[in-house]
């Protein structure tokens, strides 16, 4: 158990990396809340499955791309008696395509979900952290926000923007006991990645010096450290964990 139990909110916490982050922070002794898209009808089943494994989570439906929806979610969280100490901005989406063929709809969808969401969710939670003099804001970016990626101008721009947000906000709140950091994972062994054609997956792995995909548990372990008391001196950082695929 941690010295003091904190409450964590993880956006997009019901699948892939988000689920592993939720479990890891729960294992660290924290109370964990997750968000899911309003159209996700699997939330009750997911919560039951997690509970059967010993993980008691609370879940909140929200459209992270919509500021009003996020405000309503935070009001519900507070009404339920929770005060968020640790925020992991993990929700994201992709709409890949070369720039010449990219529609404004697909550009906006990715920027709103991946970048606007960071403002929408962080803003109504920040004052509480500042008042209590303790907080951890952790933004999940991507290797492609650092190096770019063919066919992902929208995604790469949004993920790079997340770290610009991190660096600016970190300076504003550093003396108030709140840290703001970015974590930029490389390619992980999630269902989305492992579902790509075998030849494409082989090319991805061939480009990773350690010779394998990353494990979500490795990223989650890093996040648990940043969220801990031991991570208090780290702020404004972009921590890459990508198996050496992109070094800078």
TrEMBL record:
<dbReference type="GO" id="GO:0018511">
    <property type="term" value="F:2,3-dihydroxy-2,3-dihydro-p-cumate dehydrogenase activity"/>
</dbReference>
<dbReference type="Pfam" id="PF00106">
    <property type="entry name" value="adh_short"/>
</dbReference>
<dbReference type="InterPro" id="IPR002347">
    <property type="entry name" value="SDR_fam"/>
</dbReference>
<dbReference type="InterPro" id="IPR050259">
    <property type="entry name" value="SDR"/>
</dbReference>
<dbReference type="InterPro" id="IPR020904">
    <property type="entry name" value="Sc_DH/Rdtase_CS"/>
</dbReference>
<dbReference type="GO" id="GO:0042619">
    <property type="term" value="P:poly-hydroxybutyrate biosynthetic process"/>
</dbReference>
<keyword id="KW-0560">Oxidoreductase</keyword>
<dbReference type="InterPro" id="IPR011283">
    <property type="entry name" value="Acetoacetyl-CoA_reductase"/>
</dbReference>
<protein>
    <recommendedName>
        <fullName>2,3-dihydroxy-2,3-dihydro-p-cumate dehydrogenase</fullName>
        <ecNumber>1.3.1.58</ecNumber>
    </recommendedName>
</protein>
<dbReference type="GO" id="GO:0005737">
    <property type="term" value="C:cytoplasm"/>
</dbReference>
<feature type="domain" description="Ketoreductase">
    <location>
        <begin position="6"/>
        <end position="186"/>
    </location>
</feature>
<dbReference type="GO" id="GO:0018454">
    <property type="term" value="F:acetoacetyl-CoA reductase activity"/>
</dbReference>
<comment type="pathway">
    <text>Aromatic compound metabolism; p-cumate degradation; acetaldehyde and pyruvate from p-cumate: step 2/7.</text>
</comment>
<comment type="similarity">
    <text>Belongs to the short-chain dehydrogenases/reductases (SDR) family.</text>
</comment>
<dbReference type="InterPro" id="IPR057326">
    <property type="entry name" value="KR_dom"/>
</dbReference>
<dbReference type="GO" id="GO:0032787">
    <property type="term" value="P:monocarboxylic acid metabolic process"/>
</dbReference>
<dbReference type="InterPro" id="IPR036291">
    <property type="entry name" value="NAD(P)-bd_dom_sf"/>
</dbReference>
């Amino acid at each position: 158990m941690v010295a003091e139990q904190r409450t964590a909110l993880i956006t997009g916490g019901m699948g892939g990396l988000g689920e592993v982050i939720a479990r890891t922070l729960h294992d660290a002794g924290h109370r964990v809340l997750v968000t899911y898209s309003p159209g996700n009808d699997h939330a009750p089943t997911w919560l039951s499955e997690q509970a059967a494994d010993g993980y008691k989570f609370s879940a909140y439906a929200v459209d992270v791309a919509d500021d009003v929806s996020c405000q309503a979610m935070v009001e519900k969280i507070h009404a339920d008696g929770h005060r968020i100490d640790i925020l992991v901005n993990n929700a994201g989406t992709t709409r890949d395509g070369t720039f010449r063929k990219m529609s404004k709809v697909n550009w906006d969808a990715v920027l709103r979900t991946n970048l606007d969401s960071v403002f929408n969710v962080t803003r109504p939670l920040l004052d509480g952290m500042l008042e209590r003099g303790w907080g951890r804001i952790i933004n999940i970016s991507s290797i492609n926000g650092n190096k770019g990626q063919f066919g992902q101008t929208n995604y790469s721009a949004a993920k790079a923007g997340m770290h610009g947000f991190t660096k600016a906000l970190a300076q504003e709140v550093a003396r108030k006991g709140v840290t703001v950091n970015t974590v930029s994972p490389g390619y992980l062994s999630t269902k989305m990645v492992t579902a790509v054609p075998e030849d494409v997956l082989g090319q991805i792995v061939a480009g990773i010096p350690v010779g394998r995909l990353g494990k979500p548990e490795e990223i989650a372990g890093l996040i648990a450290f940043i969220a801990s008391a031991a991570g208090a001196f780290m702020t404004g950082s972009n921590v890459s964990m990508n198996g050496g695929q992109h070094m800078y």
